[in-house]
Design brief:
Blueprint: E1 2-8, E2 11-16, E3 28-37, H1 41-45, E4 61-68, E5 80-83, H2 93-96, E6 131-134, H3 137-140, E7 141-143, H4 150-153, H5 159-170, E8 177-181, H6 185-195, E9 201-206, H7 209-217, E10 221-224, H8 228-234, E11 241-246, H9 251-260, E12 261-269, H10 282-287, E13 291-294, H11 299-311, E14 321-326, H12 330-339, E15 346-350
Parallel strand pairs: 8-9, 8-11, 9-10, 11-12, 12-13, 14-15
Antiparallel strand pairs: 1-2, 3-4, 3-6, 3-15, 4-5, 5-7
Length: 351
């Protein structure tokens, strides 16, 4: 089969790779029909992750079950599924508590980052390919209803549950002011997710005009990052936002989110940070009684509820899709996404 293979920083190529195989009774083989390039894939693309040349990228995919192991009980051949970017067993202490990111069996393994990312799972291939072997498939795959097409469903694999996790961690209440720092795909999904909780206003902060315009179309009040602090204070009678969500993985955005939160407010962090440390303003947080929440999203636990939201029309992530490319054009997709060319927002790949 073909897959998008990492060869080094800024060097990805679509090549022939080994076909996926059932290696464990709880594995399933999924033929991928849509995959996506995620912002966190750019960390590998930049060489900032412990990435090994030769592995297949990608952790956002939708497809059709082609084969199941004898231990798979919920899935059957021919079923359409979204493959969660996060591998989890569904039955350990953490999974039963709705925390699959801490799964005891998988170690919070994510597709598409090579064998070192997975605990006892060997080489964990990526979803930007024609097919994938899915460990712990009964909980890692979610059967899709007919009312959700592939292009909406692919958002369920990671960024929509991630943004929903950020909104939940923010404890958004009806009438709140929510400020979202970052209008990349995750930040834009955070606008959709935050809107489910009934805030009075969502303020979207970024530096890229076309992303801010899309944020406006999704119902947020767009603000250039250089003016964000003043605008947020002005719109909240000098208090600051009730909830801020950092959706970039950038120290400047995180500092902005902390400074924009009101006394007693909540800062929710869903951006992926690669640096080992951050100079946290603990004195300010103490004096202002801030709640600070951060973590890898519990993707699998949120997929069913968000699938129902898409199915009944409460949210629709498809306006974020700017490009649908053949799998063979994956390198071009990475190039435009990395360089923000051609008004790119979300790139999907079609094998």
């Amino acid at each position: 089969m073909r897959g998008t293979v990492f060869h080094g920083p800024h060097d990805v190529r679509v090549e022939r790779v080994a076909d996926p195989e059932i290696k464990s009774p709880t594995d399933a083989i999924v033929r991928i029909t849509r995959a996506a390039i995620c912002g966190s894939d750019l960390h590998a693309y930049h060489g900032a992750m412990p990435a090994e040349p030769g592995f297949v990228l990608g952790h956002e995919g939708v497809g059709v079950i082609e084969e199941v192991g004898p231990g798979v009980t919920r899935l059957k051949k021919g079923q359409r599924v979204v493959v969660s970017g996060l591998v989890a067993c569904g039955g350990c202490f953490y999974c039963r508590r709705g925390q699959p990111s801490q799964c005891s069996e998988s170690g919070g393994a994510v597709f598409g980052y090579g064998k070192n990312a997975a605990r006892n799972l060997g080489w964990l291939g990526g979803e930007q390919s024609e097919g994938i072997a899915v460990p712990m498939a009964d909980y890692t795959c979610y059967p899709l209803p007919e009312g959700i097409d592939d292009e909406a469903a692919v958002f369920l694999a990671d960024i929509l549950p991630t943004s929903y996790f950020g909104a939940l961690n923010g404890n958004i209440r009806p009438g709140d002011t929510v400020a979202i720092f970052g209008c990349g795909p995750v930040g834009l999904c955070a606008i959709l997710s935050a809107g489910l909780f009934g805030p009075a206003e969502i303020i979207a902060v970024d530096t890229v005009p076309y992303r801010l315009e899309l944020a406006r179309k999704l119902g947020a009040n767009p603000v250039d990052a250089a003016k964000a602090q003043d605008v947020i204070l002005n719109r909240t009678n000098g208090r600051g936002a009730d909830v801020t969500i950092e959706a970039v993985g950038n120290e400047g955005a995180l500092n902005g989110a902390i400074m924009a939160a009101r006394g007693g407010g909540t800062v929710s962090v869903i951006g992926v940070f690669m640096g080992p440390t951050f100079e946290f303003p603990i004195g300010l947080a103490f004096a202002r009684d801030l709640t600070f929440r951060i973590g890898l999203a519990n993707i699998n636990a949120h997929i069913p509820e968000l699938a129902r939201c898409i199915e009944r029309g409460a949210i629709d992530p498809r306006p974020l899709i700017s490009h649908v490319l053949p799998l063979d054009d994956a390198a071009h997709g990475y190039d435009i996404f990395n360089a923000r060319k051609d008004n790119v927002v979300k790139v999907l790949l079609k094998p």
